[in-house]
Specification:
The complex is a heterotrimer.
Chain A lengths: L27 E10 L2 E11 L4 E5 L6 H8 L9 E9 L2 E2 L7 H7 E4 L11 H5 L1 H6 L5 H14 L3 H4 L12 H14 L4 E5 L7 H14 L4 E5 L3 H7 L2 E6 L7 E7 H6 L4 H7 L5
Parallel strand pairs in A: 3-8, 3-9, 6-7, 7-8
Antiparallel strand pairs in A: 1-2, 1-4, 4-5, 9-10
Chain B lengths: L33 H22 L7 H24 L2 H39 L3 H4 L17 H32 L2 H14 L3 H15 L6 H25 L3 H9 L4 H29 L3 H6 L18 H9 L4 H35 L1
Helix pairs in contact in B: 1-2, 2-3, 3-13, 5-6, 5-8, 5-10, 5-12, 6-8, 7-8, 8-10, 9-10, 10-13, 12-13
Chain C lengths: L19 H39 L2 H4 L3 E2 L4 E2 L2 H32 L2 H16 L2 H27 L25 H25 L3 H9 L4 H12 L1 H17 L2 H6 L18 H8 L5 H31 L9
Helix pairs in contact in C: 1-12, 3-6, 3-9, 4-6, 5-6, 6-9, 7-8, 9-12, 11-12
Classes of the chains: A alpha/beta, B mainly alpha, C mainly alpha.
């Protein structure tokens, strides 16, 4: 019996780095992550491997802990006073939660782009790009600075649009441009991993497409992990997907993870099949 | 497959005959009808005339005040009656309430207006003399004409005391505000409760405290510094509270963005949060200054109403504008009272100036977004 | 892709690894806050400690004695305490309806263009120094207000508080018996109470949910009907809280009262009659030539005032935060 609407997602061949050896980004591994807010457990022994040169999409309905998991990856989770966690996160083999690790160093290597674009309003576009350097005390010479700004804005897909108005305030751009500015800003500190928390959910379709193009360009030298509610987007940009689910009253878990094509076309778990076919969430 | 019924093809979509269509010009929907306007105007004039005639048959009390009260009450009654001829009761009630509330607001505005206008009227005479600003009162007797003596010492005293007070209260108040918003925790809640309680204590008690601690216990003298400290005690909670509000308005996303770049908390606060909150912080400082310069009660206790020009806050009493005004208006000599009002105009002018600056800052911020 | 590992599923200890500069930052901010707390706590503590000796010495007579006669060792604040409360109540009675009306006017009826200006005017009214209100009260208001006092005495004199010890119907009536009264002082203080209460109330009315307002209109309510059913109930906490904040201010007002009220040390309920005293006026005027004992007594009176205002303002804060409108209100 055919469904009234056909939800099978047709995938092109997924974007692929030429080979793992050439990919420059870092390998990020989550090992047995559980998370609590106070006594409320929100994630239960989640493990995921995010190899270099890949884009990993975290999909699943609202409220199953995808964003919490993401924030654990760059140690933003602990800024909430009641937050607790167990398990390990390995960046190129080194646990970022080890006692000798500096949280500020970790965050420089693992960057984050947020759902709502947040350029710094008191700074110009150029100053926003180099804000990461100024905030972390990294020095860069004047000549290098101009190059850095151009490079980051180009990688972020914004250079052509703003190259003549670098001194205008950062808040004067449209939503999509602001988000690309935030991406450029994150790239300025030269991270190995870039985490993106629903970066396009507040944007119009054209801006979304531009950002997806940016993600594809960045993939080669930055490992990307993206949380998205939009399954078509996950299909468009990622090589591997992890499907999160939190059934009523239980903490979130990864139901299934694997190559994007398989998750969408031949999911092993029936719950995954239900979700990708639009039967819930 | 279920069948769908389509609408008949002959439905006309042209407007009914006789309809007034005006294409591109919007209709006026909310305009007051002529009837409404006339109701109000008519009631005002009618009640005015009525009360005018009747009033002078009753024992007139305070001429103008009593007349105004009678007229206003009569106006409300007239308006109620007039409106009830054409509208149902809820609308009458609504209209009369609108008139009442407007009248009350106008009354309050008038009261404030009379305060300002009266002060200016009585103070102009003293202000017309340039010696008012260039001399102090040393060697001038209170009954001497306005061509002698001035308030230079009071103006300078106010400026010095306010500057010291700002230098003390701004860092303390701002840091407390930063602590409350950025560091947080249970202790921040305690601090916030105490700060809120302290905005409310009578300023006189702050003066009393400074007097007993500094002057009696530590043996200092009544000088400008003691006055400045008393003023800063009243200013700190004001700055702390309004600065906290200004900091809290900064979106949390900006702080997160800073932290996510690998910045330290201090760096994020210093380079992102504080600059973003700068207009709000400036406003809170200036409003606190406006309050601080008008502080009188604690000065009655820790400061001496001296007559001579004194630049040194550590030695000898230092007069200031509010203190000068207080002693001047109680003086039996009319010329001294005039000097007092002249000083009052200067003080009022300074407060108004501070307010104008904050309005200017607020408009600037809106313009930039 | 998924790695399965047997892990102990209990929370681990996280070492924040804050950079040193953050530890310094948090530490210094905390220190400053502690200093500020200590200073303010010291004020209350100080007044309290110094008052103990006085309460010890005079006992409950301190609260029942009306005279303030240091030479005869008869010191008490019954008259001044009563006066403080009376002046404050008069100020509230005058200010409350006007503040409420003005707040409603600004938030509901004022045209959008001038709303910001009106808000600024209210703030300005709060910032005018009290000594200027005192001058206005003494020179402009008092000469006119004594006629109002006399009218009240003539027509409502059967009520005890409105009695004055003079004949109101005399052709040449004793004007000086009506000046410098607590009634006039109360009106002057109301000018300072009004903007405080009005600002809080207006802030609260502005928070009334637009959805509920629209619902009232959609049901056919008039503007006043909507205000009565949506804005006022929503703003109840702010109305009461703002009024109490104003009360706190009225209790502590010094300079304006000192200028307008003529001193009298008697337990007096007649607010229209000349003479009265409040605690703050007492302290301001008496401390100059106070001996150590008298100074201690003044401090004790100040401590009583401190407790009163603290209680009133804490109550106000609780009422405001508990109410629906409280969460977002800045007082």
């Amino acid at each position: 019996m055919t469904e009234p609407f056909d939800t099978t997602i047709v995938l092109d061949d997924p974007p692929v780095a030429t080979s793992s050896d050439e990919a420059v980004g870092a390998r990020l591994e989550a090992v047995g992550i559980s998370a609590w807010f106070g006594s409320n457990k929100v994630l239960d022994r989640v493990s995921l491997d995010m190899p270099p040169g890949t884009v990993t999409a975290l999909i699943g309905p609202s409220g199953c802990g995808k964003s919490t998991f993401l924030r654990i990856l760059n140690r933003m989770h602990e800024s909430v006073p009641s937050a607790k966690l167990s398990g390990e996160v390995h960046l190129n083999g080194q646990d970022i939660y080890a006692p000798d690790q500096r949280v500020t160093e970790t965050r420089k290597r693992i960057g984050m782009v947020f759902q709502k674009p947040n350029p710094f309003p008191t700074m110009s576009i150029a100053e926003n790009v180099t804000a990461g350097l100024r905030l972390t005390g990294m020095k860069v010479s004047r000549s290098e600075r101009a190059d850095l700004i151009e490079r980051c804005l180009t990688r972020g897909g914004l250079w052509k649009e703003v190259k003549d108005r670098l001194h205008e305030p950062g808040g004067a751009l449209s939503g999509g441009q602001q988000q690309r500015l935030c991406i450029a800003r994150s790239l300025a500190v030269d991270p190995d991993v870039l985490l993106m928390d629903e970066p396009c959910s507040a944007l119009d379709p054209t801006s979304t497409r531009r950002i997806e193009e940016t993600i594809r360009d960045l993939m080669l030298d930055v490992t990307i992990v993206i949380v998205t509610h939009n399954m078509q987007q996950a299909a468009r940009v990622s090589q591997q997907c992890a499907f999160f689910l939190a059934e009523l009253g239980t903490p979130g878990v990864i139901v299934e993870a694997g190559p994007t094509k398989r998750i969408f076309n031949e999911p092993e778990d029936p719950r995954t099949a239900d979700y990708v076919n639009g039967r819930f969430g | 497959m279920s069948s769908v019924v389509l609408p008949p093809a002959e439905i006309s979509v042209s407007p009914p005959a006789g309809a007034q269509l005006n294409g591109d010009h919007p209709r006026r929907i909310n305009a007051r009808s002529t009837d409404d306007v006339l109701s109000v105007v008519g009631s005002i004039l009618g009640s005015l005339a009525f009360v005018w005639m009747v009033y002078f048959q009753i024992l007139p009390f305070s001429g103008l005040v009593g007349f105004a009260i009678c007229w206003y009450v009569t106006f409300l009654l007239t308006y109620a009656v007039v409106t009830s001829r054409a509208h149902p009761r809820p609308i009458v009630v609504s209209r009369v309430m609108a008139a009442t509330l407007t009248g009350a607001a106008v009354l309050v505005g008038l009261a404030l207006g009379t305060v300002v206008v009266y002060t200016v009227i009585r103070g102009v005479k003293a202000l017309a003399h340039s010696n008012f600003f260039t001399h102090d009162m040393a060697g001038t007797r209170p009954q001497d004409p306005l061509t002698k003596g001035g308030i230079k010492h009071a103006i300078v005293g106010s400026v010095i005391q306010l500057s010291i007070a700002v230098a003390v209260s701004l860092p303390l108040g701002l840091t407390t505000a930063v602590f409350m918003t950025e560091v947080g925790g249970w202790f921040a809640k305690v601090v916030r409760t105490v700060v809120e309680a302290m905005t409310a204590i009578p300023d006189l008690l702050a003066g009393l405290f400074v007097y007993v601690v500094l002057i009696v216990a530590l043996g200092a003298e009544k000088n400008g510094l003691a006055a400045a400290i008393a003023i800063s005690i009243t200013m700190i909670p004001i700055i702390a509270r309004s600065a906290e509000v200004a900091l809290r308005v900064v979106p949390g996303g900006l702080r997160e963005a800073g932290l996510a770049l690998g910045a330290s908390h201090w760096s994020t606060v210093r380079r992102v949060v504080l600059p973003t909150a700068r207009p709000g912080l400036a406003t809170s400082l200036i409003l606190a200054m406006a309050r601080g310069i008008g502080e009188t009660a604690p000065l009655l206790i820790v400061s001496g109403a001296s007559t001579f020009f004194n630049l040194n806050p550590l030695k000898q009493p230092m007069n200031s504008l509010p203190l000068f005004i207080y002693s001047a208006i109680r003086d039996p000599n009319p010329t001294m009272i005039e000097r007092g009002f002249g000083a009052a105009v200067v003080l009022l002018g300074i407060v108004l100036f501070f307010f104008a600056v904050t309005r200017f800052l607020a408009r600037q911020r809106v313009g930039r977004q | 892709m998924a790695v399965s590992v047997e892990t102990l599923d209990t929370p681990r200890v996280i070492h924040p690894g804050y950079p040193r500069v953050d530890r310094i930052f948090h530490g210094s901010a905390r220190t400053v806050a502690i200093v500020v707390l200590v200073v303010f706590g010291a004020i209350g503590l100080f007044l309290g400690l110094k008052s103990i000796a006085t309460f010890h010495r005079y006992g409950t007579h301190f609260f029942s004695q009306a005279d303030w006669n240091p030479e005869l060792n008869k010191i008490g604040i019954s008259a001044t305490l009563l006066g403080t409360v009376e002046v404050a109540i008069v100020a509230l009675i005058v200010a409350f309806p006007l503040a409420l009306a003005t707040a409603l006017f600004i938030s509901e009826y004022a045209p959008a263009r001038i709303k910001a200006t009106l808000v600024a005017l209210v703030d300005l009214m709060a910032a005018v120094p009290s000594v200027i209100y005192g001058a206005w009260g003494f020179f402009l208001l008092m000469p006119s207000a004594k006629y109002v006092s006399r009218w009240l005495h003539q027509n409502l004199g059967f009520i005890p508080i409105f009695r004055v010890d003079t004949d109101p119907h005399a052709a040449i009536w004793a004007q000086s018996r009506y000046t410098g009264s607590m009634f006039i002082a109360g009106i002057v203080v109301s000018m300072m109470v009004l903007p405080i209460a009005c600002a809080v109330m207006r802030g609260v009315f502005a928070q009334a949910p637009p959805g509920e307002r629209e619902a009232a209109f959609a049901l056919g309510a008039t503007k006043w009907g909507m205000i009565r059913s949506v804005v006022l109930p929503f703003g109840r906490g702010g109305i009461i809280g703002g009024t109490m904040l104003g009360l706190g201010r009225a209790l502590g007002e010094t300079v304006a009262v000192a200028t307008v009220l003529f001193t009298a040390f008697e337990v007096k309920f007649r607010i229209l009659e000349t003479g009265g005293n409040t605690i703050s006026k007492l302290i301001a005027e008496r401390f100059g030539d106070a001996t150590t004992v008298q100074l201690a007594a003044l401090l004790a009176a100040g401590f009583v005032l401190f407790l009163m205002t603290l209680m009133v303002n804490t109550l106000a804060a609780i009422l405001i935060s508990r109410s629906r409108s409280g969460a977002a209100t800045e007082i």
